[in-house]
Amino acid sequence: MPDPQKVLAARVQAALGQAFGEPDADPAIRPSQFADFQANVALALAKKLGRKPRDIAAELVARLDVADVCDKVEISGPGFVNLTLRNEWIAGRAQLMHGDERLSVEPTASPQTTVVEYSSPNVAKEMHVGHLRTTIVGDAIARVLEFLGHEVIRDNHLGDWGTQYGMLIEHLLDVGEDSDEGMLLETDPNSFYQAARGRYDTDEEFAGRARRRLVSLQAGDAETMRHWQRLVDLSKVYLHTVYGRLGVTLTDDDIRGESFYNDMLGATADELAADGIATISDGALCVFPPGFTGRDGGPLPVIIRKSDGGYNYSTSDLATVRYRVDKLTVDRMIYVVGSQQSLHFQMLFAVARMAGWLPDRVRAEHAKIGNVLGSDGKIFRTRSGKSIKLTELLDEAVERAGAAFDEVPHDEPFDEVARREVVEAVGIGAVKYADLSVARDSEYVFDFDRMISFRGNTGPYLQYATARIRSIFRKGGVAPEDALGPIAIDHDAERALAVHLLGFGSALETAGETAEPHRLCAYLFDLASAYTTFYENCPVLKAPDDDTRASRLALCALTLRTLSKGLELLGVTTPERM
């Protein structure tokens, strides 16, 4: 790992062990405005050791072995240790990174089996803007963890079971499979769903038939299952289209819908009851995990089996936990689901741990996803108040990207096919990056003008940065893979760029550990900004001599590879030209 922050942390920890017998103390290495990095550990140790921070810092520096890494080590203020890196060390580490196909990001020494549950739309309903974040954030998390060496199990927990399917099937039988209304399942599933829902809510006779149809579905009635399977298959065709356009890595093999766990629900409820964890309350089988109370101060239940004998999401989710732990033997479970489900997951994990189904060795976390808002600060919807279809949103993004693209000067003309490919990549990339660059648990305002912009922390800006680097190599008649250096550091802008490049692996590790892709976005934006400063201050093709030209071309190539790999792990494509 070439990251100077990690290298310095290891050296400081070794010195802490020698000087104070504190090898496990956090060295607190942070970037500094007075040097490259700063070790702040002396302040934290002062109270514990009963000594002045500057005295601790002085003894630490006396034991610190960093002559090969640092050009200067100084104590400042109340006890900060300022660390300035050697240019030769920076250049050497950058050269190693450039020569490694994985950019010096070593696979983790402790790989984990991690299930990432994301997207999870409902069968027979089109995806809307609310599904956007869970889909692309989850995909980025899966990509990053996989690159870091973990075994990732993608899980599309499709909503494909429950009352609504009795309703949909019964409505289909009423209108006829081959009727114009029946064909809406293929052309406009939302309209078909809304028609069925309207009847269910207003026609008690229809609602009764729908509930009976659900019983037939749960019992495995052949004809009912045939209709249900058609609904699922039609939804898969639709998902292929959306996921393909978004560049999402989910496949049919990753689908484990609610129906997958149907046969496990009875045993799940029975075992909770037999162990005395679940009890009957108002006719329903419930668990009351400690620490959860309602508005009236009374204990809050997790309903396992309803009073009518039916099961619900909690039952299904508990069966899912058991399956993942017992059958998939996972070490970590990441649920990329909306923030409004926070209480549900807190109580779910509590019940699973009470039952012994979620052992301490397994890390279960709800990767909360905040809402997408409109300019009015409310949930992003159409003017009529309806949810915005994801396909329509993507169409508009590409259309707007095309308009923005035509206003940007291009070195070479684009034919219509090439323009269409680039505009599609820019439009989709803009939407994805705008979402990923915001902390996933935060709400954000959906603003086409901001996300399509070629300036600021946007997808088009980063895509354009990679295209601009490629144009340098085209003009110079050199392939990026042939720009081998050697790298040398002679200018402050070269130095700043190289130091930032060395932090790529740590940025990935942080994004994977926290399941927060916005941290990788922030790194990539800062890298592109550092490259812009380098480009403006350090002539590449017109460098003063051949050695400097070779070094700067190598820095360009390394930046291109790092930006491209980072954007790839976010699921954002990088056009060759823009």
Automatic annotation (TrEMBL):
Domain of life: Bacteria
The name this protein goes by in its record: Arginine--tRNA ligase
Alphabetized GO MF terms: ligase activity
Source species: Actinoallomurus oryzae
Short motif 'HIGH' region, span: 121-131
Residue span(s) of domain Arginyl tRNA synthetase N-terminal: 6-85
Record localization: Cytoplasm
Subunit: Monomer.
Lineage: Bacteria, Bacillati, Actinomycetota, Actinomycetes, Streptosporangiales
InterPro entries: aa-tRNA-synth_I_CS, Arg-tRNA-ligase, Arg-tRNA-synth_N, Arg-tRNA-synth_N_sf, ArgRS_core, DALR_anticod-bd, Rossmann-like_a/b/a_fold, tRNAsynth_Ia_anticodon-bd
CDD domains assigned: Anticodon_Ia_Arg, ArgRS_core
Gene name linked to the record: argS
